[in-house]
Write a structure and sequence with these properties.
One of its GO terms (cellular component) is cytoplasm. InterPro entries: FAD-dep_OxRdtase, FAD/NAD-bd_sf. It contains twelve helices and 20 strands. With 499 residues, it is of the alpha+beta class. Helix 2 links the parallel strand 3 and strand 4. The two termini are 25 Å apart.
């Protein structure tokens, strides 16, 4: 492994790794569990600003503290103010209107993964069926994909019912394989999910390359798989929910890092120790996703932080106006990599590129050599990631370079967010074993937007004494002592790709 440039404030110039002759299966790209049991607290100072966070710099919610001093006591303390923590607070209020809630955020409000993603709520409806079936069986694989559909529907319904201004787009997302081998793998997975009994009537399939290229506008498209999904401005959605929470009595404390949770003297159960003092409470909800192992060491190696890049691209005139992209995409590459594309076609037309492209795999390898960078969301403008975005766009988007690229157009910015890798690829929802009153909803493996709108209310149901079956969540999401022990004793966890 070699590095060109070094981690510093402002970003990494380039990260490279030696070539490998091994060709990864499309389902296993960039999914190997990290060698180190990495953990860490959110970066304080020098973190990059996502496009979403750039848009809200004058919003007072960013550094909101409901009370000048940290409350010394509460019924429930929620650690994390992203979509999970904010939704847990919402459903907690609905369940126990009179109980006191404090939400702790180590930095600005919603400045973790939710405020840094590529802006998708895309329910997986077929593509990961084969790997999910291999890891958990066909029944659970189908339940996971059904749950993601229900999660998407719940998010869209909430936005519409409440008139949330968050740039919501609802339309067809398109998965597009770009070579014959990948198209063949896609076709076999789609046949497998139909054989397993899934309802695929809502998925449009085009297998003729000429028609696929016409529909997708990608020159080398070999097929298309299209189904309903959404894109949105995630920070604005979560901010809307949190403002409603605050009106109902939630106490939000930004710039307050939870350091540990220890036993409290009777009659309360727990003390949440922070850098601004302690809070004593009965219930603690861990909603920090990638950072959870820093506060709860028993989850070290179970949920692991990993930097992931998102590129902001301003399209040239040849791909703007009436010629702008009108769908979101998953572009499936020959070596098993993936580009996700969010064109923000109901708002400003800026195109977001996420996913695990070959440059992201190189960044992953680099972080393995520099585990101290595992929670570094100060990375920006990493050329070794951006160059693959640029090459794909210029190769597949006909006419992208027909006109001179002017100032303000092109590949102007990228930023990092921290994904919470789950040891078995699916989230952990439920009580923390051996610690009555502590609860977890974390480890969303880069796919939290398609899970949290059902996972968070499901967790609150469990806190209220309801059974797992009453949550409606897939069984494999349940946090149990047996699951943790199995993962800690496993020589290799099931490989479940980052979406």
């Amino acid at each position: 492994m070699k590095e060109s440039g070094s981690p510093k404030l402002g970003g990494v110039v380039e990260v490279t790794s030696s070539d490998t002759s091994a060709k990864l299966n499309v389902d296993e790209y960039a999914t190997s569990p990290p060698n180190q049991e990495r953990m860490g607290f959110p970066k304080q100072g020098g973190q990059s600003l996502s496009y979403w966070l750039q848009q809200v710099r004058c919003d007072p919610l960013l550094d909101h503290r409901t009370t000048p001093e940290l409350p010394r006591e509460a019924d429930t303390v929620i650690i994390g103010s992203g979509i999970t923590g904010t939704l847990v607070a919402k459903h907690h209020l609905q369940t126990w209107p009179s109980k006191s809630i404090v939400v702790l955020e180590a930095r600005e409000f919603c400045s973790g993964a939710t405020g840094r993603n590529a802006g998708h709520c895309k329910p997986d409806q077929w593509r990961h069926f084969a790997k999910l079936e291999k890891a958990f069986g066909a029944e659970q694989a189908l339940k996971i994909q059904q749950n993601e559909k229900e999660t998407w529907q719940a998010l869209v319904q909430y936005v519409k019912d409440n008139g949330v201004d968050c740039d919501l787009w609802v339309g067809q997302t398109i998965d597009v394989p770009l070579d014959d081998e990948t198209a063949g793998i896609a076709a076999s997975i789609f046949e497998a999910i139909k054989k397993a009994g899934a309802n695929t009537e809502h998925i449009q399939v085009i297998t003729d390359p000429t028609e696929a290229a016409k529909m997708s506008r990608l020159k080398n498209a070999k097929a298309c798989y299209a189904w309903p999904a959404s894109t949105l401005q995630p920070w604005k959605l979560v901010a809307h929910i949190m403002r409603s929470n605050l009106e109902q009595g939630v106490n939000l404390q930004t710039y307050t890092t939870a350091l540990s949770v220890v036993r409290a003297p009777s009659p309360r159960k727990w003390i949440v120790q922070t850098d601004r003092g302690d809070i004593i409470c009965d219930t603690v909800v861990h909603a920090t996703n990638a950072y959870i192992a820093a506060v709860e060491p028993s989850l070290r190696g179970i949920i692991t932080p990993k930097p992931h890049m998102c590129n902001k691209v301003v399209p040239p005139r040849s791909w703007s106006g009436s010629k702008a992209l009108q769908n979101s995409y998953g572009v499936l590459l020959p070596n098993g990599a993936l580009f996700s594309i969010n064109p923000r076609c109901t708002s400003d037309g800026v195109v977001m590129f996420g996913g695990s492209n070959p440059g992201q795999k190189q960044l992953d390898d680099w972080v393995e050599q520099h585990p101290e960078q595992g929670t570094d969301d100060g990375l920006a403008r990493i050329e070794s990631v951006t160059k693959y975005v640029r090459e794909m766009v210029e190769r597949e988007f006909e006419g992208w370079n027909d006109e001179e690229i002017g100032p303000g157009e092109g590949f102007e910015y990228s930023w990092s967010g921290i994904i919470g890798l789950s040891a078995d690829g699916v989230p952990f929802v439920g009580p923390l074993p051996g610690k009555d009153g502590q609860w977890v909803c974390a480890g969303h493996h880069g796919h939290g937007m398609a899970r949290t709108f059902t996972a968070a209310p499901g967790l609150v149901k469990m806190i209220n004494g309801q059974s797992w079956n009453e949550t409606g969540l897939p069984d494999v999401y349940q946090l149990t002592e047996e699951r943790l022990n199995d993962l800690k004793g496993a020589s290799e966890a099931p490989r479940v790709a980052v979406v």
